[in-house]
Structures are given as C-alpha cells and as structure tokens.
Write a structure and sequence with these properties.
Pfam family, one: adh_short
Bound molecules: NADP nicotinamide-adenine-dinucleotide phosphate
Order of helices and strands: EHEHEHEHEHEHHHHE
CATH topology: Rossmann fold
InterPro entries: NAD(P)-bd_dom_sf, SDR_fam
Number of domains: 1
CATH architecture: 3-Layer(aba) Sandwich
Family: Belongs to the short-chain dehydrogenases/reductases (SDR) family.
Low-confidence stretches: none
Largest sheet: 7 strands, parallel
Distance between the termini: 19 Å
Strand order of the largest sheet: 3-2-1-4-5-6-7
Number of strands: 7
Mean pLDDT: 90
Number of helices: 9
Amino acid sequence: MEISCPQAATFELEPWRDLNGMIVMVTGASSGLGWELCMNLAKSGCRIIASARRTDRLKVLCDKINNMDVQENEGEARNHQVLAVAVELDVSADGPTIKESVGKAWEVFGRIDVLINNAGITGPIPNPLDLSEEDWDKVFKTNIKGSWLVAKYVCLQMRAFNHYFVLVNQAGSVINISSITGLQRTYSHGSLAYASSKSSLNTLTKVMAMELGKNKIRVNSICPGLFNSEITAGLMQKKGIEKVVSKVFPLREIGTIDPALTSLVRYLIHGSSYYVTGNIFIVDAGYSLLGVPLYSSL
Ligand SMILES: NC(=O)c1ccc[n+]([C@@H]2O[C@H](COP(=O)([O-])OP(=O)(O)OC[C@H]3O[C@@H](n4cnc5c(N)ncnc54)[C@H](OP(=O)(O)O)[C@@H]3O)[C@@H](O)[C@H]2O)c1
C-alpha cells in the first residue's frame, strides 16, 4: 500500500531541500515518526539533537546519522562533523528536570533553531467510563504538559539568544506533532484522553504562536493521519486495512513518512515559511474529511 512520491524530481525546485546548518531538536526520536524525521533532516544538512527515554535506540540512530555516507547527504557535504547527538529526556518529568535536559540539549551545538515536539502516547483506549485517572494523567502529562514544558524551556533560550543576535530574522520554529484526532473532524472509540490532549495541543500551538510572534518564534502544528510506527503497528496489521484505505481515503493510499510528512516539516523549518505561524496542517491523504473513524484512537 505504501507508495513512493511520483513527483520526487520536482523536489529539486524546493529551497527547503537544503537546510544546511539548522539545528533541530526532536523529541520522541527513538522510533516511528521521530526517528524518520531525524534521518531525513540530517540528510538535508540539519544537525540533530535526538531525545527520548530509550537512549540505547537514540545511540543507534545517532551512529547511523554520524556514519552516513556523504552521497546520502543532500545538504552540503560536511565530512567528519558530528551531525547527531542523543539527549535523554522524559517529557512527562517535572519542570526542573525538563529544564535541565533542555539546557543540556542547547549546549550540544550552542543553540537550537527548531524544536519538533513529537513525543506522544495513545495510552489505553477504553470507554470514558472505564478510563482510569492515572491513564488520563499519563496521556496528558506526555502529550500536552510535556510539549508545553519542553517548548517553554527551549523558547526561553531562543528568546534570550535572539536578544543578543538581533539581526537574525527568525529566532525559532516550534513544530508540534498533533493528530487528526485533535481536530473537530473525526473521533474514534476509546480516544477520550488522546483526542482531548491533541486538541489541547492545537490550542497550545495557536496561543503560543500569538504570544511568541513578537519574539520571531513561529509555532505550528502538524496533524498526521495514518503512518507506519510503533503506535499504529496493531492497526496496520488489521485484516482488510488496505481495502479500507483504497475505498475510504480520498487519495487512496497510506503515504510514507518520507516524503509525505518530511516535506512539510522541511518547509516549516526553512526561512521560506517565515510568515507562517499558528497553523494546524493536516497531512492525512484527505481521510479526516469524511469523518469516518478507522479502528484505533489515532
Ligand atoms: N503514526 C501515526 O500514524 C500518527 C498519527 C497521528 C499522530 N501521531 C503522533 O506522532 C507522534 C509520534 O508517534 P509515532 O507514531 O512515531 O509513535 P511511536 O513509534 O510510538 O513513537 C513515540 C515516541 O514518543 C516517545 N515518547 C513517549 N513517551 C515519552 C516520554 N514520556 N518522554 C519522551 N519521549 C516519549 C517514544 O520514545 P521513548 O519510549 O524512547 O521515550 C517514541 O520515540 C505522537 O505524538 C503521535 O501522537 C502519529
């Protein structure tokens, strides 16, 4: 069902293909979307701060990026430079702990240009009456409070840094990875905590964009539809999923993270998007337009 992008050749025309020198921190980099984003952005010339709790996986990812063949790198060749560094970060930790981890992340390359708030969990997906308070709190701590706290400590540094380098036209870009479940379009059974948290994340995006515009920090959300990852592994293996997709999805396909998602992420990192903030971008092959739930809470 996965297809490659037939327009790959036209990417030559896109200035955001080359993001040489941009420093990007990605949370939840140890698997799925976060992992793929790190790989793709490193190829475009970004330097990566990969964070998550499973540091063994982050080490594998960083080794892969740091040993990447120069030909694989679409940005300017930068032999022998460290391109990716792992920083342990539990986004559900308390403020001071997150502040300390963000401090370490900032020190790695001396600044952070872009934060991709990608870490997220669905949690168990029972009926609202069976959902435990503990599970609700876990989902909210990770998906919304964690996203806010990481953004808060990164943006405080961005704001201070920009204060000393006033010639920099943009101080930073924050990209929150939300979900189509957070839109008022389609809801799935069992998604109470997850959908509520992602909806809050979209609100957080808009309010932070409004407040931080004067500091030249842009904040946008991306709501992915269905992509292959640990979180969707069960759903992807369901019998008949391909048939459902080929009948229900307007574009009749499940895209691959690269380039379906990475192309938009690259744009939001690049200066071409300097006038774009407070937006909720939907990347789902049009699926959520129908308002028909698939099986899971995603
Ligand atoms: N895949 C999809 O189709 C889809 C659709 C809509 C939205 N999304 C969103 O995309 C994001 C990535 O999901 P995915 O599909 O790539 O799932 P995934 O493969 O399960 O990845 C989730 C990532 O989040 C990290 N994470 C979870 N809890 C964390 C915590 N407390 N602190 C730090 N990191 C934590 C995990 O790392 P550790 O366990 O190592 O910490 C992992 O790297 C999520 O926000 C999800 O809601 C995905």
